[in-house]
Input
Amino acid sequence: MIKRKGDGGNSVWPGAPYPLGATPDSKGTNFALFSANAEQVDLCLFDGNGGRETHRIKLPEYTDQVWHGYLPGVRPGQIYGYRVYGPYAPDRGHRFNHHKLLVDPYARNLTGRLVWNDANLGYDPDNAKKDKSFNRVDNAAFVPKAVVTDTGAGIKSPPDIPWQETVIYELHTRGMTMRHPDVEDEHRGTFAGLADEAVIDHLVSLGINTVELLPIHPFADERHLAERGMTNYWGYSPFNYFAPDPRYLATGGIDEFRGMTARFHEAGLQVVLDVVFNHTGEGDALGPTLSFRGIDNASYYHHEADAPGRYADHTGCGNSLDLTHPRVLQMVLDSLRYWVEDMHVDGFRFDLATTLARGPGGFEADGPFLSAVRQDPVLSRVKLIAEPWDLGPGGYRVGGFPPGWSEWNDKYRDTVRAFWKGDDGVLGDMASSLTGSSHLFAKHGRRPRASVNFVTAHDGFTLTDLVTYESKRNEANGENNRDGTGDNRSWNCGTEGPTDDPDVGALRLRQKRNLMATLMLSQGVPMVTAGDELGRTQGGNNNAYCQDNETSWIDWEGLDAEDRGFLEFVRRMIALRREHPAFRRPRFFQGRPVNGSQLNDITWLSPEGRELKGHEWGLAYARCFGFHLGGDTGTYLGRDGRDLADDRFVVLMNAHNDAVPFILPEPSFGEAWREVFDTARPESADEESVYRARQTYRLEGHSMALLIHDHGDGA
Output
């Protein structure tokens, strides 16, 4: 029997409307839930394992659209949920249904998992008029429940890594450790597994300094996946923004996450979370009622202006959170601050970030969300990365975010792929990509760090698959290979799929070196996808969002000699970037002499050893060029305005099939040059080999070389 409290008794006190969520103290817990349109809110308490509802308590107070009450004696560990009463009027945007147990949007920890059942639907699935019917079946047995949690913040001591020194490593919490032989079985796939010494040692030895975790918030597995025994592996379907998903907790407690961040910080690594505030896992009008929809559908979601019962879907996921609503904006900001101040993360990557900045007129660079973050004393100081697009009108906004933000630069990805695959007419775009994409980002005081450069990401081919397949292989996803992009700009080097042909294999490995070296020598912030350094393949699947299996998990033990050689090459490229500030400038190139130098900070070179001429940038057949870095690093020191100087470099790139005799620049650039690496012969490159000015350097087909100014001549 469920006991009721709060109907005139004194067992529940009025409490306070702030802070939102469940806040324990030494005597009890305050509960506060925003809902502008509800008529009543019941707090439901459950027994120790969450299987039985023991008490149902009507929250007694309603202040500033917040329902609240204080329960003496309720301590951390108490399991709870909400039932919210109000009109069920979908045509007016209201979908209240008190038969549905709802997850507190501010819950810091959850217990249990979402189980797909028709009871989770707010409408009657057997009624033909689904959008207007009402489902009276209780769903408490099929949804996760919140846990009252003490938010003790502990000690925070994060490393301070400037943007221009940042190298990002994008990983999946589960996929990183599920096959790691040195991680204990019970810790695999969890934060405890990520904190394992063997994992951290790999990250540190690789040279990256910022780990970006794919979404870790509790997420719904779409029904069509659940029915096929699959999951939304990537996690881009959240229904709470404060708790970590219980699947990633080996211990069940959130201190496991704090312990992981502490271990990362001790190793000099920052932690960035991929967050999904653009939509929720409740989906479209036929999706489940798990939290926001049942608490106050009209407030939480964007609706069509002329049809308040219809969701405005800018995300392609059925709904879009409405951050123009002050309480929704408050929830997002509260979540972000919580993860920084209490859980000790160092920044965020915002999925489909254009949706977060949508107002009545579309994308608003000075709208509520972006303006609020910009002035926030906590959030304005952490790393902020936008995925600068969504699927709505005018949704592609690369270069459109305000100062303080960095952005995923998909134009960089597409250009670098196209160049090395040998496409026509991309020379100019390639030069722009190498120098930080100033045509996109050099405005409003923004700098090269605004561009997060990547060649691969979780979404798309792995690096190995990029040079192995020209067509996607997504049949295992169960969607008849219709899902995933067909525009991969990949090249299989002459043979589709795996092959034993040694020439094809050698070319593929060279292409991987070209792509990785380009990434590390480009201005901006490089991002490496986990496993690319280890030769990870998904068998040509470029949309492995539902593959929670060996397709997505990193294979730590299946490395052959080529994989180990490439791993060492990646380490070398990251170290090279770290050692030479010329490749990670905080300011854009100016293309002229600076700080008293006689040489331009950058000069573009033709294979004839002279500066490229204007018309040559547009030549469709041009696939070989180079550039000279004059030693300026853009890092200004002292009152005299002089900069921190670096060595001078010549970078040569050849995407032709055949070798090109590249004449090194005239003596005014430097009398002699020493080879640092050549992707055509990475194991045998002779670093003692010195080339004189105007000497010909044989640049093999599909290869890239770096030469450093040799000071042995007294220069």
Remarks:
- The radius of gyration is 28 Å.
- The chain has three domains: 3-147, 163-280+314-582, 589-713.
- Residues 3-147 form a domain with the Immunoglobulin-like fold (CATH 2.60.40.10).
